[in-house]
């Protein structure tokens, strides 16, 4: 009940050593047991209720759905994947590649997804025969602990060591650092400040970055259904997700129609005076986002900002004015506030998006609603993000869904743009070491022609 | 001369108040969800009334309580459902239970001078699950005796049998021991009935209303466990 990190690590290590050489079938059974337990409706309900009660953020129904879909989505990604023993062979090169676990992995979990982050990463670390110690967020430590308890129960059921999953009971910054220093690898889902803490711990690690999704809309799409997709995504779990749209950028030709469609979906467009009231409430010191607004209902935000909005308002809209610290609405808001931009030239909007991302959210993701494939490709080529999602509700699509092929996760790598090691949706592939077994093949030394043929033809040897 | 210090578990060594509160709320919502024709106020007032009746008769079984509530309102249920609720109930209690921070150090110090023991009422849990007290090795290794009243033929507190059984196993007379607990009825009255000096712990980290004593028992009050490091001055 007290957290002795050294003891927790020792127990995790012992559990890890028990399963270090387990065959694939036994591992898959263990993964299925945990997945089944976490996706059960009764489990998801219990976890969602506790998470909402503890943190006071998010929407209970959305959380139930998310815990279930993230768990089942991760299972979908894991089915049939080989993670034990010989996983790849290249006979021509005389190579056999063996997958190996890393050991004990520290998992630092955020308060926005204190349960589903554990479900996704827990299944991935079990699939790769690793043990995991969770360091929960102080606001939601009960929810994370309960999630791990359900996982441990499932492990006991199939005779796997329960200490493969452990959770710090009473968390603190010191314990988070200590667990990362003690473990063999760390994965931390949180903002830029956490990235520095993780790297300071000095262990190999994966981190993630902040979001600030700009959703660009052009005149080729059906406006009412596009507005519905954006609002569905924007309002899910009261915008707790870093994949939630923070801005919508509308082509001038359909601007008025799109604004009306967004209003029809429950959007309220703030006047200049209301925008200023909202700004003062959201950034009281002009810099730091007021944490009280995070994932709170739109009516709560409007009331506290002193704005009268009609009953049924689901989110607030403000017109974007500047990019950067002079206009905080251009950055990430993690709330039911959507910034609206207007554009006429697509390439200019792509450049503007790059500037917005440079200020906030670089490396994360962006969205496009357009039927023009060349625009989709232009955005993918020019935007410094790990993911571009087209014609989909972004929050649902970005970290894996039933209607796209993104790997399921709650941890989105944002590449070197955000100080991360990868741009991947963090999944089981990030938790393996490989041993390359090499045997001799007939020697072949490539000629100059093979290595430099095209170059030499054009530029000659001197 | 005091030779032994006996402890209750919940709200004495651990803060589990939120755990029990939330776990019970969860089950109440689970039961109520399938009762479209009943108001929440009617439901909850009946639930609380029945729970008081159960406690008065020392019936601590949650499953029995929930079954009776379901039966009263005609809410469909089966044994599988009751077991599932109880399973979630205890997982939630465990997730939201934490040691009071001063406990490990205080017990460690006391163990050098006194015999330590725990006397806790049963969790009244179906199945083979152990009392949570037994899952805390850092505490249990300091206790010479652990009595789970309500199991093994020992009646639940406030019956004095549990206290006397513990003292007999410690080979200590009642006047040579103190009992530390948070509950007026089960802990303070129970210990007094066994002629053991009670100490009433009203822990400062708990936010609850404490009952007015309805019996004339001489009982010192402390608000944190490390006050026990000077037992003599508490008793004087």
Q: What is the compact description of this entry?
A:
The complex is a heterodimer of chains A (462) and B (236). In chain A, 42% of the residues lie in helices and 17% in strands.
Describe the structure.
The complex is a heterodimer of chains A (462) and B (236). Chain A has 462 residues and is α/β, with parallel strands linked by helices. Chain A is built from 16 helices and 15 strands. Chain A has helices spanning 5-19, 24-39, 41-55, 60-78, 116-127, 141-157, 173-182, 192-200, 223-235, 255-264, 272-282, 298-305, 346-359, 373-382, 394-398, 448-459; strands at 85-90, 95-101, 104-108, 131-135, 165-167, 185-188, 205-207, 213-217, 245-251, 267-269, 315-319, 337-343, 363-369, 385-390, 432-438. In chain A, helix 3 (41-55) runs antiparallel to helix 6 (141-157) and helix 11 (272-282) packs across helix 12 (298-305). The radius of gyration of chain B is 19 Å and the shape is elongated. With 236 residues, chain B is α/β, with parallel strands linked by helices. Chain B folds into two domains: 4-15 and 99-235, Rossmann fold (3-Layer(aba) Sandwich); 18-95. Chain B has helices spanning 17-33, 40-56, 62-73, 79-95, 103-111, 137-140, 161-170, 184-193, 231-235; strands spanning 4-7, 14-15, 98-99, 115-121, 145-149, 177-181, 197-201, 221-222. Chain A binds chain B through residues 1-2, 42-43, 45-46, 49-50, 53, 142-143, 145-146, 149-150, 153, 169-170, and chain B through 14, 18-19, 22, 26, 29-30, 84, 87-88, 91-92, 94-99, 104, 136, 138-139.
Features:
heterodimer, A: 462 residues, alpha/beta, Aldehyde Dehydrogenase, Chain A, domain 1, Aldehyde Dehydrogenase, Chain A, domain 2, 2 domains, 7-stranded parallel beta sheet, 5-stranded parallel beta sheet, 42% helix, B: 236 residues, Rossmann fold, 6-stranded parallel beta sheet, two-stranded antiparallel sheet, 9 helices, 8 strands, 14% strand
Classification by helices and strands of chain B: alpha/beta
Average pLDDT number of chain A: 96
What separation lies between the terminal Cα atoms of chain B?
Answer: 12 Å
Q: Give the CATH level 1 class of the largest domain in chain B.
A: Alpha Beta
Question: Beta-strand level of the residues of chain A, as a percent range?
Answer: 15-25%
Number of strands of chain B: 8
Biggest beta sheet attributes of chain B: 6 strands, parallel
CATH architecture of the largest domain in chain B: 3-Layer(aba) Sandwich
Strand order of the largest sheet of chain B: 5-4-1-6-7-8
User: pLDDT below 50 for ≥5 consecutive residues: which ranges of chain A?
Assistant: none
Share of helical residues of chain B: 40-55%
Per the CATH scheme, the topology name of the largest domain in chain B is: Rossmann fold
Radius of gyration of chain B: 19 Å
Amino-to-carboxy terminus distance of chain A:
73 Å
């Amino acid at each position: 009940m007290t957290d002795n990190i050294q003891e927790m690590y020792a127990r995790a290590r012992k559990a890890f050593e028990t399963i270090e050489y387990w065959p694939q079938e036994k591992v898959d059974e263990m993964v299925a047991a945990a997945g089944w337990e976490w996706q059960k409706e009764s489990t998801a309900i219990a976890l969602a209720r506790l998470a909402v009660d503890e943190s006071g953020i998010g929407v209970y129904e959305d959380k139930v759905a998310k815990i279930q879909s993230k768990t089942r989505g991760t299972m979908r990604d894991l089915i049939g994947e080989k993670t034990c023993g010989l996983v790849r062979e290249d006979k021509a090169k005389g190579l056999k590649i063996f997958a190996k676990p890393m050991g004990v992995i520290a998992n630092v979990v955020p308060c926005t997804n204190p349960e589903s982050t554990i479900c996704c990463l827990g299944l991935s670390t079990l699939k790769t025969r690793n043990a995991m110690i969770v360091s929960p967020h102080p606001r939601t430590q009960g929810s994370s602990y309960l999630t791990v308890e359900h996982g441990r129960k499932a492990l006991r059921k199939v005779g796997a060591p329960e200490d493969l999953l452990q959770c710090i009971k009473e968390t603190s910054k010191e314990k988070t650092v200590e667990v990362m220093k003690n473990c063999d690898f760390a994965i931390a889902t949180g903002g830029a400040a956490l990235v520095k803490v993780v790297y300071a711990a000095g262990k190999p690690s994966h981190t993630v970055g902040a979001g600030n999704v700009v959703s660009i809309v052009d005149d080729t799409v059906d406006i009412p259904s596009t507005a519905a997709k954006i609002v569905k995504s924007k309002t899910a779990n009261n915008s707790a997700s870093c994949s939630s749209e923070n801005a919508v950028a509308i082509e001038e030709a359909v601007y008025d129609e799109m604004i009306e469609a967004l209003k029809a979906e429950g959007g309220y467009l703030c006047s200049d005076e209301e925008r200023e009231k909202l700004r003062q409430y959201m950034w009281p010191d002009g810099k730091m986002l007021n944490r009280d607004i995070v994932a709170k209902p739109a009516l709560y935000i409007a009331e506290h900002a002193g704005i009268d909005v009609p009953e049924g308002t689901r989110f607030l809209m403000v017109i974007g004015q500047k990019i950067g610290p002079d206009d905080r609405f251009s950055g990430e808001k993690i709330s039911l506030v959507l910034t609206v931009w207007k554009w006429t030239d697509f390439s200019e909007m792509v450049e503007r998006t790059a500037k917005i991302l440079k200020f906030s959210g670089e490396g994360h993701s962006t969205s496009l609603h357009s039927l023009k494939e060349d625009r989709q490709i232009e955005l993918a080529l020019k935007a410094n993000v790990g993911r571009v999602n087209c014609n989909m509700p972004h929050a649902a699509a970005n970290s894996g869904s039933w209607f796209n092929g993104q790997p399921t996760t709650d941890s989105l790598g944002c590449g070197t743009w955000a100080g991360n090691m990868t741009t991947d949706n963090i999944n089981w592939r990030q938790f393996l070491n490989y041993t390359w077994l090499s045997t001799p093949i007939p020697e072949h030394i490539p000629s100059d022609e093979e290595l430099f043929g095209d170059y030499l033809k054009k530029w000659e040897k001197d | 001369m005091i030779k032994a210090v006996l402890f209750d578990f919940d709200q004495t060594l651990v803060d589990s108040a939120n755990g029990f509160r939330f776990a019970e709320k969860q089950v109440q919502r689970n039961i109520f969800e399938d009762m479209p024709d009943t108001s929440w106020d009617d439901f909850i007032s009946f639930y609380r009334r029945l729970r008081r009746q159960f406690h008065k008769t020392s019936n601590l079984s949650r499953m029995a309580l929930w079954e009776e509530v379901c039966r009263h309102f005609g809410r469909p249920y089966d044994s599988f459902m009751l077991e599932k609720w109880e399973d979630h109930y205890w997982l939630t209690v465990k997730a939201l239970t934490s040691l009071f921070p001063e406990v490990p150090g205080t017990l460690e110090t006391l163990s050098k001078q006194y015999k330590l023991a725990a006397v806790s009422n049963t969790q009244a849990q179906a199945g083979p699950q152990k009392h949570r007290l037994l899952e805390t090795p850092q505490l249990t290794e300091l206790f010479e005796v652990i009595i789970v009243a309500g199991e093994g033929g020992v009646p639940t507190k406030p019956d004095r049998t549990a206290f006397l059984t513990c003292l007999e196993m410690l080979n200590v007379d009642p006047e040579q021991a103190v009992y530390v607990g948070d509950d007026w009825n089960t802990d303070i009255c129970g210990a007094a009935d066994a002629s053991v000096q009670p100490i009433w712990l009203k822990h400062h980290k708990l936010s609850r209303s404490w009952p007015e004593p309805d019996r004339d028992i001489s009982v010192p009050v402390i608000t944190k466990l490390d006050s026990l490091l000077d037992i003599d001055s508490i008793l004087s």
